[in-house]
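User: Some background: our group keeps a shared notebook of sequences we're curious about, and every so often someone picks one and asks for a predicted structure to add to the entry. Today it's my turn. The entry only has the sequence so far, pasted here. Could you supply the structure so I can complete it?
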Amino acid sequence: MGCKLSQLAASEFTNDPLARPPPTADPRSPLSAKQQYCMLASWKGIFRQIEKTGIILFVK
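Assistant: Of course. Here's the predicted structure to add to the notebook entry:
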């Protein structure tokens, strides 16, 4: 539906995540963008369980 111009404009702005280029990594960091993502994701998991993890480490 709609005119040809709106269809053309919609086709240029695709939301396909595979079509987007990967994010650029911080040039100061020796890690790649994927390594930074994995490190942040693991720290988010640790942060959620930090109190429980701290008690376990303290008891051991």
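Suggested note for the entry: The mean pLDDT is 74. DSSP finds three helices and no strands in the chain.
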